[in-house]
Please model this.
Amino acid sequence: MKSDAAAHKATQRRSARISTARADTGGVTTRPARRGDLEEVIAIDAAVTGIVKRDYWRSIYRRYGDGAQAGRQFLVADLAGRVCGFIIGEVRDWEFGSPPCGWVFAIDVDPEARLSGVGTRLLAAICAGFRRAGVTRVRTMLARDNTLILSFFRSQGMMAAPFIPLEIALEP
Amino acid sequence: MKLQKNTSLALYSVLEFAADPTRHVSAADIAAKYDVSAHHLAKVLAGLARAGIVESVRGAGGGYRFVGNARRLTLFDVIQTFEDPGLHETDHRERGERTPVGQALGAVLSEIDQTTKATFSSITLATMLSLIERQQRACLMPSSPATTAAQTRAAKRAR
Model:
């Protein structure tokens, strides 16, 4: 298993390459994630959240990556041969009593590659996949104070869904 | 949720200006469009100018123009220029608010406030302008048969 230092070095190498290629954002393409992308996905997530979650991402790749079942998507944004963002989602049937609907449960763009339309391309790509799967609605859920990502989804036209998330602290 | 009249007027005005930052819009034009007194509107526009959101342009063809960043300025930024959106976040508490009943009610009101704040804070003027554009397109377009077909496919797949 690679160390956190390895993830940090991957972040530095990726940042240098993205900075060089950033001017040409037209070069961004989206494609299904491959096993070889995982280290870069882990590094982007670690750069944003400050936590290296290698086991979690391997598990996500097994469930949503290459050869995953229909309706599941794990896409990456590829800029000059490097991963600069990712998005993951799936079609969920009748969850919360809702007709089949696309759910986006993870999206992140390398901080060095932001404000250049990468997130918009990723969302458009996953929505295209959802359309092919026959669903006509896409949902996501975010922390109330995550203004950055909330603003992104709002800018894409997303509005509040007719659901209210609830929680309770479990007493020991 | 109901905004104060000045706040609504400020939002109407800012969105009019932000739709085309190169255009000078007169206060009279906005007052006529939204059916408000020019005198009342002038006070609101002065508030927006003080906040650095618009600036007045003197002379022929003068008026106001938008000088903010529509991709950064949120509804919350405009609203808090005119009213305090955190209605229930105050140091001063009435006696009733300190009782268990008052505290439970306060928790519910706080929940509503936090959701309201998150909504206003996440919607930029650029997003609002896109929303307005979509509303205008929706008013012009009949409902799409393609949507109905896709919904039917999804329902069949689910069965």
